[in-house]
Amino acid sequence: xxxxxxxxxxxxxxxxxxxxxxxxxxxxxxxxxxxxxxxxxxxxxxxxxxxxxxxxxxxxxxxxxxxxxxxxxxxxxxxxxxxxxxxxxxxxxxxxxxxxxxxxxxxxxxxxxxxxxxxxxxxxxxxxxxxxxxxxxxxxxxxxxxxxxxxxxxxxxxxxxxxxxxxxxxxxxxxxxxxxxxxxxxxxxxxxxxxxxxxxxxxxxxxxxxxxxxxxxxxxxxxxxxxxxxxxxxxxxxxxxxxxxxxxxxxxxxxxxxxxxxxxxxxxxxxxxxxxxxxxxxxxxxxxxxxxxxxxxxxxxxxxxxxxxxxxxxxxxxxxxxxxxxxxxxxxxxxxxxxxxxxxxxxxxxxxxxxxxxxxxxxxxxxxxxxxxxxxxxxxxxx
Length: 383
Hints:
alpha/beta
């Protein structure tokens, strides 16, 4: 019995290699499947889990695609192109600033000359403006020109040296202008033609016994300096000069003539000054040369035209300093004693006004006499 059992047990051993092989096969399949999932892309969507009772997936149709009959002249539309960006327009040219109305109370801004008008238009307008002024006097009677008719009374000099004080730039600063008019006269007051309310201001000056000038802006040598609006410019041409000067002369009345505000370039141009003198001659006016340039031709042009002429001798307040003004007043006195008469020009500044208020009452004791500008022009023979 033992032998038979032993033989029966030997028949079971051949199954072991089969089991081992199957286990190895299963392990290899599992390893391969794991490697496949490990090497799959990470962003691959997971496969949906099989649904219960789901039938087999549908098989793709093997029918050929439907053909559409096209017309014989059919041409396929081209593929749409991406829209090209619109070209960037160039930046607009900077527009020139619009000209501002000149404000006579505002300094520091430029007053460019106006665009030139046709010569014929300028000539017609100049004739119209000049004709609107007081009619030209009868120059055959020397006592009738406006520079004499509008002159204020001259104090009796009795041979004493004469001094003339001309105050320029009046009309803009009303407070200081009024302080000037309150000083003892006769002073010679020069009003800028672009100041406001000139009628009332100049009438107040005449009522206080002061003489009147039109302080005409003229072109300076330095282009950086601003003479103000309505300045006479040498290159503007004769008709433009006549028109602009006529406009200045039309702002108020009762004056004896003009003097130049700045004007170092204009008064050095003989052609321009001849045009200016022709207007003054026509209207019986005189010219005070402020002598802003040592190249001025004012005297020559006035003599040629027969226009009464006076030149400035001393500037009182080139320096806005009390001691400097006092020294210039001493120079004025010396010049008057030496030449019989002297003309000073100054401005409505506080230091100047205070110096004049102290100095004017001392003239009689010093043997000097304050006179209007017309007195010196008459002394010079009207030329």
